[in-house]
Amino acid sequence: TEPVPGFPQPTEHTQKAYSPTDDFTSRWTRADAKQIKAMSDPNAGSRENSMPKEYTMPTVPQDFPDMSNEEVWVWDTWPLTDEHANQYSVNGQEIIFSLVADRDLGFDERHQYARIGYFYRPAGVPADERPEDGGWTYGGQVFDEGVTGKIFEDQSFSHQTQWSGSARVTKNGEIKLFFTDVAFYRDKDGKDIKPYDPRIALSVGHVHSNKNGVKLTGFDKVTDLLQADGKYYQTAEQNSYFNFRDPFTFEDPAHPGETYMVFEGNTAQKRDEAKCTSEDLGYRKGETNGETVDEVNKSGATYQIGNVGLARAKNKELTEWEFLPPILSANCVTDQTERPQIYMQDGKYYLFTISHRSTFAAGIDGPEGVYGFVGNGIRSDYQPLNRGSGLALGSPSNLNFAAGSPFAPDYNQHPGQFQAYSHYVMPGGLVQSFIDTIGTKEDFVRGGTLGPTVKLDIKGDSATVDYNYGDNGLGAWADIPANRELKNGKA
Ligand code: FRU
Ligand code: FRU
Ligand code: FRU
């Protein structure tokens, strides 16, 4: 693609694969991420979308159905999968896991009170024959109260919460639930007495499923798998606001017999001493629209140093893990590379991760959405998708105006700016996400339920919205179909 006047060229990335254990971390550079703003229309007026249509989720209407009949708030959601991210029904029931919280809480208070809940619905029903809300039945919480708090040595936590993860099923109906187990230590005014403590954890249970419904049993023990190490992954000592969470496990056909995990981390530097390098900036030789390292390091951008971590299992039970160097860093680009996942297609490895508009670094901007990278292996010199930017699918936004927040959208923002978050890419390029806020400053509603599923056409180094899918690109609400079935599991 032609360079956009006033903007730098993206960094050149080879997609070359390295060994998973190599000390090579690909960089989502500032030069790459500046391609997002470069494709934003500087003339888009108040409340218009400034981003290209092909990378923008169609606008979601405000009168969405609620999948839990307003029983719980619902956000991050993941299916029941195998080691290749296939999605399973069990004895005729599709099953999903969601972060849920009590509806008595405000939606923005949810993070300290999150619990993992589950939903089920009959498999094999075409989307247009299901109830409008997706037809899910809420099955309740996975864990009994108290179970997930036991792994913390310091039991004086004020809040103990369960954050995102992923779930693996095997033929006998065993489920390995990987998740983020979190303790907060706050005083009665909500101030931290000491930093929060997020850990990547595993609980193993069983699914019992028949035509009458789904029950989960045995999730009564939690194994602490990983805590940030301060070498590759930033710790609380280095930055009390560090990010460490969201495990996703998979196998790589190129390395049979191994199980890997990607997760959200931050580059292991001390918050106030963090520095980005010329490689993090990634400008080409002779670039006239670049920045100096010194400028960037003085701009405050060093507070945003997200990465995508890699770990490898040391035993078949997946109860022991070792860290490997991160596969992607976003130093001076964004602070949050959340819910990373590996998606394989046509011999290529796609890394998808979600990011908020508000977590981009000084000098970088981009919509709420899912970002994608392609390479020849799980560790490779990842090429950011779509004109070298990394933006795979954003919510309709106007980058000419401030964002505001989900509880107070900016006056000039498109009503869809906060319509969707926590996108998860499913087999066939289907993407599910939850609704945060829909509407304009004076007329918006909060979500707390899953939005309409959309479809991405993923090919080479691009991903574009399939407008032939569903109704002008918008599929059914809360549609998370299984592409595999498991029968005669432990029923
Ligand atoms: C073997 C296996 C996996 C899958 C499951 C469901 O464990 O075939 O591929 O997770 O069983 O059939
Ligand atoms: C903003 C956010 C989330 C994160 C949480 C931490 O909503 O930064 O991305 O999970 O708050 O409290
Ligand atoms: C994404 C996220 C995850 C985290 C969860 C906490 O929406 O921020 O990274 O696990 O929400 O609520």
Q: What does this 3D model show about the protein?
A:
The protein has 491 residues and is mostly beta strands. It has a single domain (17-484), classed as Tachylectin-2, Chain A (5 Propeller), CATH 2.115.10.20. The protein is 5% helix and 40% strand. It contains four helices and 30 strands. The chain has helices at 30-38, 278-281, 293-298, 385-388; strands at 17-18, 26-27, 72-81, 88-90, 93-102, 115-122, 137-141, 159-169, 174-186, 192-210, 213-217, 223-226, 245-250, 260-266, 305-313, 321-331, 338-345, 348-355, 369-375, 379-380, 383-384, 391-394, 404-405, 408-409, 421-425, 430-440, 443-450, 454-459, 462-465, 484-486. Strands 3, 4, 5, 6, 7, 8, 9, 10, 11, 12 and 30 form an eleven-stranded mixed β-sheet that branches. The longest helix is centred in the N-terminal third of the chain and has 9 residues, at 30-38. The protein is globular, with a radius of gyration of 21 Å. The mean pLDDT is 97. Residues 82, 169-171, 486 line the site of one beta-D-fructofuranose.
